[in-house]
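Retro notes
What went well: the complex prediction finally ran end to end.
Inputs used:
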Amino acid sequence: MKVIDSTAKKDGFRMPGEFEKHRGCYIIWPERPDNWRLGGKPAQKVFVDVATAISKFEPVTVGASSEQYANARHMLPEQVRVVEIDNDDSWVRDSGPTFVVNDEGDVRGIDWTFNAWGGLEDGLYFPWDKDDQVAQKICELEMSDRYRLPDFVLEGGSIHVDGEGTLITTEECLLSEGRNPQLSREQIEQVLKEYLNLEKVIWLKRGIYLDETNGHVDNIVNYVRPGVVALAWTDDVNDPQYEISKECYDILSNSTDAKGRKLEVHKIHVPKPILITKAESEGVDAVDGTLPREEGDRLAASYINYYTANGGVVFPLFDDPRDEEARQKLAELYPDREIIGVPAREILLGGGNIHCITQQVPLG
Amino acid sequence: MKVIDSTAKKDGFRMPGEFEKHRGCYIIWPERPDNWRLGGKPAQKVFVDVATAISKFEPVTVGASSEQYANARHMLPEQVRVVEIDNDDSWVRDSGPTFVVNDEGDVRGIDWTFNAWGGLEDGLYFPWDKDDQVAQKICELEMSDRYRLPDFVLEGGSIHVDGEGTLITTEECLLSEGRNPQLSREQIEQVLKEYLNLEKVIWLKRGIYLDETNGHVDNIVNYVRPGVVALAWTDDVNDPQYEISKECYDILSNSTDAKGRKLEVHKIHVPKPILITKAESEGVDAVDGTLPREEGDRLAASYINYYTANGGVVFPLFDDPRDEEARQKLAELYPDREIIGVPAREILLGGGNIHCITQQVPLG
């Protein structure tokens, strides 16, 4: 498949909203023992649950390393396709391609540079060369040509779009020292506009409290449909999350999108703080250079980290009283989709959630 | 994708002839330094030539190990898709699935057991576990359900079919001690008939002289179309090949196929004997348990080891006066196909040829 030396905007391609129709979904199988406890076994079960839930709505492909291929194939249900994709970890939202489409139904990938959320500055593991090849490999599997940006670091989880010219992101992430410190905010915005075909970028300040990705937007805000967003919220003014969510709320409420619409903002409460237990911490290999998982550390739990499938929404459950409230809220926001909750503590322990471990391929 | 506990015959599937329409073709990238000289570099160039030639006619997917992925992607032309398929070596004709189709256009794979051409009896390398997974992996990539035969060893190169109920094979291979010694000839024939939907098996005695696969049929006979076969030939009565080819000729000339037709047999002369040079031998890592490549050894060169593509035939050239004769003969046999020759000594040095390194997926 080709590398195209142009931009999506020049070629008449745009990034569709996640709520638009998909051809399918990719997931990468978890295994690294310095991030997933007990050799990845508990997380693998939850990945199976997520893949199974999404496969109710659209074709799911799971990429596994050669070593884990047979195990993944045995654990996953037969309707899920399993292919080999070697990787450094399983965050395909961030390592995978961002797909763009044109009016003729063609699909192309954007192959951003991936540097493990901050490279040598504050990245979460080293090396990350296999992850940086994941986008290319998924494009090949999908027979999609791609735009490759060898000098621009971006993760898919740091952006959300409405498919109609608007993108939402956070300064905490996109202006971080570990991504593109040589570029100004305006230059970064220009790259996004050219490669995703946008007219407007809405900049939030920060993501979820203690989010190790430097505040990816996909853990705090999601686009329900053009003009409508969901926001992670807390009413507890003593929680550091309050100030962050309030700041997002104020920015979003006072923003207009590329079409001049005011945004409708729906709050979904975060669960009560979730801390890593001693047993959970001890299940993870301690390796220099990989972010440690220490007992008592607070995890960046948020219901906003859900996946929007064809006719469905798959969202994380935290065994918290807010679980049911989140389900009801999502059911109201997505009246035409089936809402499926998956107990997701094991994904959260690895540093993300359901949206982070999925990557949609739009129908084109 | 599913494993189906039934047989092709019961389910109304049949193995089409290679000359029928294809969806595409798979190739596995060569790399193992104890079989391919100079770390596989010269062979890789030839594999690129073969993939490029076939891609003129149908979509080509090359499977490469994770380690060789980037190199394969760089060397192959952009119209060829590259995916990860871990492997023990690159003989996808033998490790890959045999595809069957039904009248509704469904395609399923037969996933025979692979044991490196003879297992612990006289196999060519150890271990072969990755190769035995290749068929499953290609089925997953193609989203094809499959029949898995955990107790029946077969390589795709040991059979040729006319798609109308007839299969040709060799006793040397199928009755070898290293495949299915627990089964009688009749029992082996029964398995083939059930899984490929056949009425008739034509048994040749032996394959090409010194063929290390225990005489795979695909190096000595190919099906041009139902009722018509091409046979590797020599007029040199002092060449051990003569007696073998004569024996095949007599059997084929006196055989009728499943439809009751007498076979039309076309002779294509083998090149003059090709021997491994000192330099070629020295370029291969010597490893206990892998068949050695020794100076002066005669290679099993035959033009019959060609690939039949949609509208094309890709055949091996040996820098021999017979090259041009083979091209003319193939042009006569395939008047509607473009005939492309590829210098293939480097594949031959690895123990096979163009047919051995390819596996078609029928259109269904």
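What we learned: The two ends of chain A are 17 Å apart (CA to CA).
What to try next: split runs per interface for comparison.
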